[in-house]
């Protein structure tokens, strides 16, 4: 068994002997030192058994022990070995040949070991602990500085240094652990061959850290100034560089590499992730295999690559190869300069291209593709929407599966297709398939050259054809259909009106109007169904070739028949019916309302006053009317007028005649309507269409010519003279009255719409769009690159406004919702009537308001009216905003805030306990402070306090002292102002002046009233003064003023009716005031001062406040409530800080001691007979660390074991222990 022994003094032989620890014995002086000596001696006997034996020991009178030739021990020391010296004070120990322990409490164990400093320990061959507190363990170990520790063969440690391991070296305050480890001043080197320069740390085999650097890991190298390398073979060679991870490398200044094989070789670069590479200056590569090779480039995501200067790549396998390019999303690729690709598989392969969306592709220069699978493959092309495609130069495609294949084409809407050059297709399924075609509306189709189809399902399939209106159709060349369901099926036909229809060269105008070949139908439900027929008027019908019907429900049903007037009927061939409700049969003429010409032609009849038979083709019936204005007849079959009847020689005044020549002959080249000298022009009616070059033309021909000569592509109905559409820009389109498209590739649709700059689009009445802007909706307005959608929506430069009356006037602002307003740069307003009025402001929610710069309002009715402030939640509103130099509750110093967050009287839950000054606190912390405040309150209860007003507030005009019999105020300075307190000295001076006054003079200084005989004042004490009826001053130097006042104490003062000062030096001021104790002061009526050296301003139940007390400045001055509160707060804070500090120090010291115990517990011990062991252990506990060093040896026979241990901790504490034991 193993039993521990202790040293016991043997009185019989005068020596120390070893006894069981259970044995009892008498103690001797310096018993602890003797025990240490004996333990060391026992250990030494096992260590060097052949050189010194028990029989050789020499015990000196001072209790020292020596064994060995030439050994010397003094002052209770132990020297064992040849020429061994233990000469220091305090039980020094030297064991081994030539070992030397020359200073107080030094220990040297081993041949040639040297312990030259106080409390130094040297163990091992040639070990040297040269300075105070030094520890050297191991062959040739050198601890050359004070408090140095060198453990291991040839280990070296300077002042306060620690070197553990063979050939380890620690400079001043350095720590080197491991074979060959080297640590400079304040450096730490741990591991085989680790090297740490001054103020650096190197942990790991062959690790190396330059000055102010840190290296952790096998072969980690932190050779740059202030660099950090963490991980096996990590390398931080640049100044201020950081490399973390196996083989991580940061070679440039300010570079940082995190991850296995991460490489940061560019100045100020960052590489984070396995094999990440940041080669460019200011580059950042974050993610496994990410690469940022150019200056200012950034790559985020596994295998992301940013190869262009200033490029950014975000996402797995993303690639930004072009300068200033950006690729965001898995496999996104931005290879062009200034290109942008956002979305997985997005491609922006040419300069200045933009691709946004999964698999979006912008391959043409300056192209933009936005949406999943969107494609913009030509120069200056744009595609917006999933699978949208813009294949033509300058083409624009907007909408899902939209396609703008032609140059300068525009396709807007789902499945819209503009395949022709300069074609425009707007609306889902719209088709503009030929050059310069326009299709606007859902499923609108413009398939003829230069055709235009506007309206849902409108179709313009003929060349130069136009169809306007839902389901309208212009299917022949030059055809025009205007109105829902209008059909222009013949060439050069015009059908205008809902469900109107027109055949070749026919014109049908009016709802339900119908015009056949070269026919004209004008009026709702009018019908000109035969070739060349004309029907004008509601329900008019001309159903046979050449027929004409003019008037409501007029009918011309015979060939070449004509009916003019409401319900006029020309039912026979060549019949003419003129007038309402007229009727005409074949070849007849009915003239005048209600006339009817129904007689059939006659071949042989007898005419009046004619002898031969006559033939008649028909009848002319005027309905029993006078025919006036009849020109004289000339031929036989002409009618004659009354004038002819009167005179056959009369001239034909009513005829249109040629003008005469000057010679009186007829000039057949000139006709003046109305006659020579006529003052007004004359209208020619029923003029046939001219055919030859010299024929007259009618109004219809003129209108047709104007229509053909106007806009060659597209133009809407309106006044041709004043409201003509204008498309003056290259490849521009204008549709609508006064529509204007003046910019290249501009489009204007709607009355008064304006597209005034390049690539502008304005859709809707009065819509206006600037450069590359889109304005959709009546009165919508969009400036450069802005988008405005909705009635009266307004969008400024680069802004977006969506919703009726929405307004985004700030640069890059956005407003979404009815009446939403984003009025400042980069502001955002979302929600009906939301308003973001400050730069970078955000307002989200119905009527939310963010009025100032960087303000945020989220929630219905939330209002943020202060800069940099936030209103969060419905109805929340900021109140104060940022403040400077404001007084915060409980803080004495002025405070400054950046802004405000208001949550609208809502609970904020889940708040962690704050630790820093600017962190929020929770209720649990508040409860803790409340407990502390309770303690302070108890202290304040004993202080002098102001009285309180009935409402509970402090009344600083009143102080009531609460002492029984009054309270004395001491060390009161002499008052100078009218409202200052006075001291006794001032009072005595005043009394002296009164005593010297003339009492009964005509104008006395002192006057009193009473019965002189019975109420005379009495001043019986030496130098006493009494003034007032029955006043009495019996004490030496006492003064009594007032009727019945009594000053019986020496030096006492009583002033006031029945005031009494009976204590020596007491003062009673006030009617009935009593100062009964020595040096007590009673101030005020009925005040009582009954305790020595106190001031009382009242009595029990009659307390008063002391008000207007100035802050005290000296130790004996009175303090006011403000000082008390401040002092209480400071005292509490200081007490807390002091207590916390002491508690923390005690806790850390205890943790350091625990860590030292753990470190000692980890030390292994020699277990083989005749063998020794040097061991090192480390421990940590509660954030503190400790290092333990132990030396143990087992005797050759295995019976005796001894052990020496030393510890040091991060708390600066050192400990040494020696023990011995025996086996049996």
TrEMBL record:
It comes from the Bacteria. The keyword Signal applies. Residues 627-655, 685-716, 908-946, 970-1005, 1105-1144 form the Trimeric autotransporter adhesin YadA-like stalk domain. CDD domains: LbR_YadA-like. GO terms for biological process: protein transport. It holds the Pfam family ESPR. Residues 76-98, 101-127, 132-155, 211-233, 236-262, 334-359, 418-443, 446-472, 474-500, 542-568, 570-595, 727-753, 796-820, 824-845, 853-876, 1047-1073, 1075-1099 form the Trimeric autotransporter adhesin YadA-like head domain. Its main location: membrane. Residues 1-49 form the ESPR domain. Keywords: Cell outer membrane, Membrane, Protein transport, Signal, Transmembrane, Transmembrane beta strand, Transport. Residues 1164-1224 form the Trimeric autotransporter adhesin YadA-like C-terminal membrane anchor domain. GO terms for cellular component: cell outer membrane; cell surface. It is found in: Cell outer membrane; Cell surface. Gene3D superfamilies: GSPII I/J protein-like, Serralysin-like metalloprotease, C-terminal. Belongs to the autotransporter-2 (AT-2) (TC 1.B.40) family. This is Hep_Hag family protein.
């Amino acid at each position: 068994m193993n039993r521990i022994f202790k040293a016991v003094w043997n009185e019989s032989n005068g020596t120390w002997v070893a006894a069981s620890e259970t044995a009892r014995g008498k103690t001797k002086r310096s018993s602890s030192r003797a025990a240490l000596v004996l333990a060391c001696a026992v250990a030494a006997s096992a260590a060097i058994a052949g050189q010194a034996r028990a029989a050789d020991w020499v015990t000196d009178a001072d209790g020292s022990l020596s064994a060995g030739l030439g050994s010397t021990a003094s002052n209770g020391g132990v020297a064992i070995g040849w020429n061994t010296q233990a000469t220091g004070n305090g039980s020094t120990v030297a064991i081994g040949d030539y070992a030397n322990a020359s200073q107080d409490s030094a220990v040297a164990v081993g041949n040639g070991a040297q312990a030259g400093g106080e409390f130094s320990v040297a163990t091992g061959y040639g070990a040297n602990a040269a300075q105070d507190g030094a520890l050297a363990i191991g062959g040739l170990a050198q601890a050359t500085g004070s408090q140095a520790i060198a453990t291991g063969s040839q280990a070296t440690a300077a002042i306060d240094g620690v070197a553990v391991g063979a050939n380890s070296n620690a400079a001043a305050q350095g720590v080197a652990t491991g074979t060959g480890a080297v640590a400079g001043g304040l450096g730490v080197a741990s591991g085989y061959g680790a090297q740490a320069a001054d103020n650096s740390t190197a942990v790991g085999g062959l690790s190396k850290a330059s000055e102010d650097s840190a290296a952790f890991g096998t072969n980690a190298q932190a050779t740059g100034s202030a660099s950090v390398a963490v991980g096996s073979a990590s390398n931080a060679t640049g100044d201020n560089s950081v490399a973390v991870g196996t083989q991580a490398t940061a070679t440039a200044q300010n570079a940082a590499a995190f991850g296995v094989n991460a490489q940061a070789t560019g100045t100020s670069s960052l590489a984070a992730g396995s094999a990440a590479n940041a080669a460019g200056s200011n580059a950042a590569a974050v993610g496994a295999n990410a690469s940022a090779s150019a200056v200012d480039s950034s790559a985020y995501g596994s295998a992301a690559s940013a190869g262009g200067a200033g490029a950014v790549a975000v996402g797995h396998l993303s690639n930004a190869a072009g300068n200033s390019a950006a690729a965001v999303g898995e496999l996104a690729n931005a290879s062009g300069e200034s290109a942008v690709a956002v979305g997985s598989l997005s491609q922006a392969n040419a300069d200045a291209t933009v691709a946004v969306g999964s698999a979006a592709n912008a391959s043409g220069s300056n192209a933009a593709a936005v949406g999943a699978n969107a494609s913009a493959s030509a120069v200056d092309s744009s595609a917006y929407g999933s699978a949208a495609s813009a294949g033509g130069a300058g083409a624009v495609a907007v909408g899902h599966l939209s396609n703008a294949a032609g140059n300068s084409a525009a396709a807007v809407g789902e499945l819209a297709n503009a395949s022709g050059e300069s074609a425009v297709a707007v609306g889902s399924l719209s088709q503009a398939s030929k050059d310069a075609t326009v299709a606007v509306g859902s499923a609108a189709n413009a398939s003829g050259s230069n055709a235009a189809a506007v309206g849902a399902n409108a179709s313009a399939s003929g060349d130069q054809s136009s169809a306007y209106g839902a389901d309208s159709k212009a299917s022949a060349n030059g055809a025009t259909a205007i109105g829902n369901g209008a059909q222009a099926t013949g060439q050069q036909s015009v059908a205008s009106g809902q469900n109107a229809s027109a055949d070749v060269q026919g014109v049908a105008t009016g709802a339900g109007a119908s015009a056949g070949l070269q026919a004209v139908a004008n009026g709702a439900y009018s019908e000109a169904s035969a070739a060349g027929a004309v029907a004008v008027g509601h329900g008019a019908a001309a159903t046979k070739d050449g027929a004409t019907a003019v008037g409501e429900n007029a009918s011309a049903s015979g060939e070449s028949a004509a009916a003019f007037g409401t319900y006029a009927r020309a039912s026979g061939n060549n019949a003419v019916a003129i007038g309402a409700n007229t009727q005409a049969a074949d070849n007849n003429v009915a003239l005048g309302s209600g006339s009817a010409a129904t007689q059939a032609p006659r071949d042989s009849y007898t005419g009046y006053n004619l002898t031969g038979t006559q033939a008649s083709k028909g009848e002319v019936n005027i309905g029993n009317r006078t025919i006036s204005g009849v020109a004289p007849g000339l031929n036989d079959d002409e009618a004659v007028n009354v004038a002819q009847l009167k005179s056959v020689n009369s001239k034909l005044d009513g005829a249109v005649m040629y003008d005469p020549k000057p010679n009186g002959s007829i000039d057949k080249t000139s006709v003046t309507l109305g006659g020579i000298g006529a003052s007004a022009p004359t209208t020619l009616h029923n003029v046939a269409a001219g055919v030859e070059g010299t024929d007259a033309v009618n109004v219809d021909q003129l209108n047709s010519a104007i229509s053909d000569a106007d806009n060659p592509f597209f133009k809407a109905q309106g006044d041709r003279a004043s409201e003509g559409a204008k498309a003056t820009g290259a490849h521009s389109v204008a549709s609508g009255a006064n529509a204007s498209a003046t910019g290249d590739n501009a489009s204007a649709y709607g009355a008064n719409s304006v597209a005034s700059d390049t690539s502008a689009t304005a859709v809707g009445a009065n819509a206006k769009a600037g450069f590359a802007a889109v304005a959709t909706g009546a009165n919508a307005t969009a400036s450069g690159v802005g988008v405005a959608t909705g009635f009266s929506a307004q969008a400024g430069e680069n802004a977006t406004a969506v919703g009726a009356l929405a307004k985004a006037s700030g640069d890059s602002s956005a407003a979404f919702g009815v009446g939403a307003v984003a009025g400042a740069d980069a502001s955002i307003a979302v929600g009906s009537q939301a308003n973001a009025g400050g730069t970078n402001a955000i307002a989200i929610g119905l009527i939310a308001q963010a009025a100032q710069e960087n303000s945020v309002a989220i929630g219905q009715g939330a209002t943020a009216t202060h800069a940099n402030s936030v209103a969060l939640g419905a109805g929340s509103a900021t109140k104060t905003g940022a403040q400077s130099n404001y007084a915060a509750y409980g803080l004495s110093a002025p405070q400054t805030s950046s802004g405000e967050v208001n949550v609208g009287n809502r609970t904020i839950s889940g708040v962690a306990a704050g630790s820093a000054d600017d962190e929020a606190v929770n209720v649990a912390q508040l409860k803790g402070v409340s407990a502390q405040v309770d303690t302070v309150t108890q202290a304040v209860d004993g202080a002098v306090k102001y009285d309180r007003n009935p409402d509970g507030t402090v009344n600083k005009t009143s102080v009531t002292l609460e002492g029984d019999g009054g309270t004395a105020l001491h060390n009161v300075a002499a008052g100078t102002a009218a409202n200052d307190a006075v001291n006794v000295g001032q009072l005595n001076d005043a009394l002296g002046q009164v005593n010297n006054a003339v009492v009964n003079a005509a104008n006395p200084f002192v006057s009193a009233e009473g019965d002189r005989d019975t109420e005379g004042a009495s001043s019986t004490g030496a130098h006493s003064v009494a003034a007032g009826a029955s006043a009495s001053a019996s004490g030496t130097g006492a003064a009594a003023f007032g009727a019945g006042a009594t000053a019986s104490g020496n030096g006492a003062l009583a002033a006031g009716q029945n005031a009494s000062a009976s204590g020596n030096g007491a003062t009673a001021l006030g009617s009935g005031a009593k100062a009964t104790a020595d040096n007590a002061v009673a101030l005020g009526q009925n005040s009582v001062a009954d305790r020595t050296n106190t001031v009382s301003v009242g009595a029990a139940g009659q307390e008063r406040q002391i008000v207007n007390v100035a802050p005290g400045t000296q130790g004996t001055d009175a303090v006011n409530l403000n000082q008390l509160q401040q002092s209480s707060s400071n005292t509490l804070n200081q007490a807390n800080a002091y207590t916390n500090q002491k508690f923390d120090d005690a806790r850390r010291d205890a943790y350091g001691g625990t860590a030292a115990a753990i470190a000692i517990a980890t030390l292994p011990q020699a277990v083989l007979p005749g063998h020794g062991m040097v061991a090192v252990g480390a421990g940590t506990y509660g954030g503190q660390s400790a290092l333990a060093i132990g030396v143990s040896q087992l005797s050759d026979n295995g019976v005796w074991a001894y052990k020496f241990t030393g510890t040091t901790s991060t708390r600066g504490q050192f400990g040494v222990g020696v023990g011995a034991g025996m086996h049996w």
